[in-house]
Amino acid sequence: MDAFLHTPFAEIAALLALASGVGLLGILLRQPLIVSFIAVGLLAGPSALNLVHSDEQIRLLAELGIAVLLFLVGIKLDVKLIRSLGTVSLLTGLGQVAFTSLFGYLIGLALGLGHLTSLYVAIALTFSSTIIIVKLLSDKREIDSLHGQIALGFLIVQDLVVVLAMIALSAIGIGAGGGHSSGANTIVSVIASGAGLVALVILFVRYVANPLTSRLAKAPELLLIFSLALAAVFAAVGDYVGLGKEVGGLLAGVALASSPYRETIAARLGPLRDFLLLFFFIALGATLDLSLLGSHVIGAIIFSLFVLIGNPLIVLAIMGAMGYRKRTGFLAGLTVAQISEFSLIFVAMGVTIGHVQEDALGLVTMVGLVTIAASTYMITYSHKLYALCEPLLGIFERRQTPREPEDASHHDEQGYKVLLFGLGRFGTAIGLRLEKRGIKVLGIDFNPDALKRWRDLGLDADYGDATDPEFIVDLPLAEAAWVVSTVPVHPTGLSHEDTRTTLIQLTRTSGFVGRIAVVSHNPRDTQSLLASGADVVLEPFQDAADRVVDLLCGAELSERTRIPDITDEEIPTP
């Protein structure tokens, strides 16, 4: 094997083959793909097959994957949403860091760790993996939901705390060598550089982004290369000035967030992101030395339980006190139920400086393995987990929830004949046409941006989740004749929970006696949905094709099948 892996190309080929095999096994066992990728890293690492020798090449691909991932997050960020969620993100992020550090420190002391070691471990427990969480939320199509946007906000706050903690450690290291002023200068330099990057992004958005992307869009391949270059350059600059590649990549995405071609860019870079992130997980697993794991098993279990249970409860309590619903707080809280790869780097820096021993790194490594694997399942099955825990979460919700998006509709005002779930392009087109016919429609979505677009059209909308039993019960189901779902279904590789089936079950058990229509893009799904209780299954592509055939065969276009005064311009693109 060593003879075969004498070149980086052969090594990467072997890693891809291993990833394919382990990934296929994970799918057969219904495991999340992220867990399979981490397993690949462990198998390829020094404690198992020892396949990774081209560390620089693997690390380069991994870092490029991180830049692209955060770039794609940034390109979908809405500046207005950042303003509205900035307070909760800041308070939740800082509150979680403070409480986790305090209680983690006390747990460390109770386990017999020294004061400095307890402090290092406690701070390491506050960092959550932005890369893993964003990947999971993106796979579940929840990155645009309210809890997804809040989670992203306080993860960014955490990343900034990571930067400051790393700078502080570097300053301590410099100070140990007699360079106290250099450490202070480093902090000032990072703050100034960050302000400079933000100013550059603002100028780029205002004067350059739209005209430049319009020219580049004439050659789609060039637009893709430019976007990738922008992500890499900003990530490199962010890393150089001490902000980190994550913040740099995020700012690059924000720079193109106002571009009319952002959806095209995101769609084209998605597969490249998934490919490159494989090497991030390989690099992460390959750096874990399993020989260090055995000395602190009891401590690792206790700290892991604290991260898996304590961190979500801290976020839930803070968001509940701020006026968010327990469901939103719970789903957002689950995203911090693991520690980050930066936790390992942080403790490793402490080992290098001489503050802690290597067994502390082994302790944090074991906590990382347990929490990353467990939280992957928790986030994937978040809605089912909420259903189980919901009876116990009442203490985390105020009587009023003023921080949730305001409802444009009031349920005591009867008259809604159609409850429409999913306010994307197809759902908006249906809603507009129903309103033109004088049929009162209540639109429902858990994406704040979709709600705003819908309300801008003068339609009533409500913020909520189609899988939330409490929300479904509170809807005006008694007067409604139809419940319509245009919510798209995106398989995540593990969760086979179908939002459409859940919605059918919840509306029926809530006493709805009208008819239910759901969207399907798969003939097998159509039969399954009909068997689950759907009265009508809408097949947009098949229905459109049937209508086109009718027109081509001479059928007259009547007022009943086409309303000329509804144009594509009236249906905003999500």
Structure write-up:
By secondary structure, the protein is mainly alpha-helical. The chain folds into 2 domains: 389 residues, Na+/H+ antiporter like fold (Up-down Bundle), CATH 1.20.1530; 153 residues, 3-Layer(aba) Sandwich (Rossmann fold), CATH 3.40.50.720. It contains 22 helices and 6 strands. The chain has a 6-stranded parallel sheet, with helices on both faces. Helix 7 packs across helix 13 and helix 12 packs across helix 15.
Total beta strands = 6
Order of helices and strands: HHHHHHHHHHHHHHHHEHEHEHEHEHEH
Q: Count the DSSP helices.
A: 22
| Level-1 CATH class name of the largest domain | Mainly Alpha
Measure the end-to-end span: 50 Å
How many structural domains are formed by the residues?
Answer: 2
Give a nutshell description of this structure:
This protein is mainly alpha-helical.
Would you spell out the secondary-structure blueprint of this structure?
Blueprint: H1 8-28, H2 33-44, H3 55-74, H4 79-110, H5 115-125, H6 130-139, H7 146-176, H8 180-216, H9 220-240, H10 245-255, H11 262-286, H12 297-321, H13 326-333, H14 341-353, H15 358-380, H16 382-389, E1 418-421, H17 425-436, E2 441-445, H18 448-456, E3 460-463, H19 469-474, E4 482-485, H20 499-509, E5 515-519, H21 523-532, E6 536-538, H22 540-552
